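hey
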């Protein structure tokens, strides 16, 4: 099954107008540095002293916080992790998963040139503090 990919503006409209939840799959420090306003944070990878490491509980943590028919927009830094996370969630039976291409910072080519602006540079609503119950520690504790 192919993941439906949308622009930052389309993702924002899905959240504001169609009841989608924005699930930021970046690491906790990335999320805390800035994220789409109202986003939830469940990392697909954790930042460790040795670099990024897979979150083995990712699927279980999403399942404990969202029904499989929940409307979810997934985002990350540039679109790579969120695309992988969307594929994993679809394989786990989630039926309304959309991936926001270009992520938070924008999609870049092999030379580092910006190909598509991300959420932040598109001028969409951002925050540095999570709404109550939407930070990773709160969401993880539900599992």
């Amino acid at each position: 099954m192919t993941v439906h990919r949308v622009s930052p503006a389309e993702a924002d409209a899905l959240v504001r107008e169609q009841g989608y939840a924005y699930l930021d799959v970046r690491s906790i420090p990335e999320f805390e540095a800035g994220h789409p306003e109202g986003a939830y944070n469940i990392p697909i990878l954790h930042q460790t002293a040795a670099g990024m490491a897979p979150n083995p509980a990712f699927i279980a943590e999403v399942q404990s916080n969202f029904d499989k028919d929940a409307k979810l927009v997934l985002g990350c830094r540039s679109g790579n992790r969120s695309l992988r996370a969307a594929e994993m969630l679809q394989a786990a039976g989630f039926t309304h998963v959309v991936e926001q291409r270009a992520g938070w910072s924008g999609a870049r080519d092999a030379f580092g040139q910006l190909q598509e602006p991300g959420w932040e540079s598109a001028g969409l609503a951002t925050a540095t503090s999570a709404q109550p119950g939407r930070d990773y520690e709160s969401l993880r504790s539900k599992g």
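The helical segments are 8-18, 28-33, 58-65, 80-91, 136-140. Residues 53 and 119 are 25 Å apart (CA to CA).
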